[in-house]
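In response to the reviewer comment on reproducibility (Comment 2.3), we provide here a single inverse folding case reported in full, input and output, so that an independent group could reproduce the run without further information from us. The structure tokens appear first.
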């Protein structure tokens, strides 16, 4: 650009731009795919999971349920039951182990959760520690000695003119994505996209099922 055109972009104008990583820029410009040999991304085995918990603090609250689903028709809900704290502790570890075993058995190409990077994965990792073990110990038996962990380095999510830092979850041989990141990126260029939570996003995108019943987060456990 000429010097007179070389002006700083205002914060409002910057919302009209989507900033992508060099890797994404390369794939967009060349047409290459991240997953070689696939003509359609529906061929990629995608696994989605979600936690239901007693609360938001994994140091005090436990996991109640883990819901798992793939784009190949597999669905499973793992429930944590028990009449005493000891029984629930044992069954919560069994639930986490079954979740990890399911990843090992199905070997998904991609695993996604909504706000998974800052909630679900952190919650599972902390619960392992509170229950007397670790994610390394729980997962290494399923990944030939390698294990699920958080990256030591912070990653940056670019949102228009803003940036948000997070620590990426590393699962051996699996790509981890977070649908909340996709929503936040969409919000950066769509001013009508007001909230990023799963309930609102599903409704806004026209994906809400007709028979869907919503229960307030603090009522899910008792319901």
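Designed residues, in position order:
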């Amino acid at each position: 650009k000429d010097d007179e055109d070389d002006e700083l972009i205002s914060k409002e104008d910057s919302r009209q731009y989507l900033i992508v990583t060099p890797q994404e820029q390369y794939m967009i410009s060349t047409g290459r795919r991240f997953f070689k040999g696939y003509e359609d991304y529906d061929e990629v085995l995608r696994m989605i999971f979600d936690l239901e918990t007693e609360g938001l603090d994994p140091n005090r609250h436990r996991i109640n349920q883990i819901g798992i689903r793939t784009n190949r028709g597999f669905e499973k809900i793992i429930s944590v039951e028990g009449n005493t704290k000891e029984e629930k502790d044992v069954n919560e570890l069994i639930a986490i182990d079954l979740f990890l075993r399911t990843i090992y058995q199905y070997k998904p190409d991609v695993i996604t959760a909504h706000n998974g990077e800052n909630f679900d994965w952190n919650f599972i990792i902390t619960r392992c520690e509170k229950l007397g073990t670790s994610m390394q110990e729980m997962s290494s038996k399923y990944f030939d000695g390698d294990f699920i962990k958080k990256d030591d380095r912070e990653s940056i999510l670019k949102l228009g003119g803003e940036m948000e830092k997070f620590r990426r979850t590393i699962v051996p041989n699996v790509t981890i994505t977070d649908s909340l990141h996709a929503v936040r990126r969409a919000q950066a260029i769509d001013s009508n996209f007001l909230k990023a939570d799963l309930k609102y996003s599903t409704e806004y995108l026209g994906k809400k099922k007709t028979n869907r019943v919503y229960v307030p987060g603090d009522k899910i456990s008792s319901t």
